[in-house]
Amino acid sequence: MASSASNQANKTQSAYSSYVTSSQAAWNSQYGVSASHSSVASSSVASSASVKPSSSSSAKYSSSVTSSSVSSSSVASSSVTSSSSVSSSSVANSSAVTSQWLNDLNALRAKERTPLTSDMVSDKGGAGSDEGKSLDALTQDAELTKWAQTRAEELAAQGSISHTDMKNGAPTWAVNSGQVDGGMFSSPAFDFSKQVNGPEALAMWSGGTQNPINMWASELQDGSQGYGHYLTEVSPFDKKVGFGYAKTASGATIAVMEIGYHK
Fold first, then answer.
1. pLDDT in tens, 79-89
2. Euclidean distance between the first and the last CA atom of the chain, given in angstroms as a whole number
3. Strands 139-140 and 240-247, how do they pair?
4. Integer Cα distance of 151 and 93 in angstroms
5. 0.85 exceeded by the pTM?
């Protein structure tokens, strides 16, 4: 037992040596998306230490993101049901909406996807990879849901998205040695040779409707953000998830996803 505890302490000390947040992504102008952010909890072999948080997360973007289908082994944005979209004109913290997001996320995880090589992701300034294999479904967790909703409301109050104060509302098991990692380094699937993406993914849009699961998954097609949000969605190190969303004073919608591993 003493040896096991020592090994875990060594693992924790090494795994939480660095923490990186990703920069902003551009999204399809038809959705009026302002920005999107994902976080990366780094292992001791992190390859994305040079990625810096953006200083203009509230700026609006209009670069194109394709919505056409990809190969049969990939997940096309059209495969994510539009029934989970949230209207910016009428947002309430509805369990029906977040339950549909959970269904959409698990549908994405269950599909065989286009494998991403480390070189592909590195070329986009990110870290991590997806082998494209089917993954276990996640369960919606009350603590992660409370965390996500806390984050959504405080971000909506400030009117922009960033990973500042990400610990606010987090359960104790999601924060280790000052690092916000969702407890994923405790997963039995954790591999020191791989990057841990997450635990937080953010999206913000104004006007119309949008599906954040779809937004993040679209990176499989366009390669933006170093696939960071997409890799958070298909992380093999998590088993639980929570969602939250809120409206800003100007009427924009902010969605938050928190993933994690906890026995």
1. 333 345 665 54
2. 19
3. parallel
4. 13
5. no
DSSP letters along 63-100, please?
-----S---TTS--GGGS-GGG-EETTS----HHHHHH
Query: Count of residues for the chain?
Result: 263
Q: Distances in Å between the alpha carbon of 184 and those of 31, 82, 116, 137, 235?
A: 32, 30, 21, 15, 9
pLDDT (0 to 100) of residue 251 = 94
- Over residues 110-139, the pLDDT tens digits come to 999 999 998 888 888 888 889 999 999 999
Contact 118, 80 (CB under 8 A): no
Q: Which CA distances in Å does 34 have to 60, 108, 159, 172, 202?
A: 4, 24, 11, 31, 11
Of 53, 69, 61, 54, whose CA–CA distance to 27 is shortest?
A: 61
**Who's near 116: CB < 8 A, 6+ residues apart?**
129, 130, 132, 227, 231
